[in-house]
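Example record

The entry below shows one chain as it appears in the dataset: sequence first, then structure tokens.
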Amino acid sequence: MKKTNFFVVFWLLIALISFITFLIFFHTLWDTLSYLLFPATGDEYMMSTNEINRSLFATVPMILLVAGAFAVSLKNGLKLYYSL
């Protein structure tokens, strides 16, 4: 395998991993927002306001970071691919 092919695969693999991580954090974001929109009642697990704020404070910056990593790695991988 050529060295440039290795770098193309490397950048696109990083893009794939960051996309999957983005989906995981996006699920956490929607799960947290659902407790704000539709509070749990009864014997279900009820998140407190502090837990909701803590989850949002941790999730939103990570979504932005992972989305940035996805964009950069995809851009670099495709740029290398098209330069071949």
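Notes for this example: The mean pLDDT is 88. The two ends are 13 Å apart (CA to CA).
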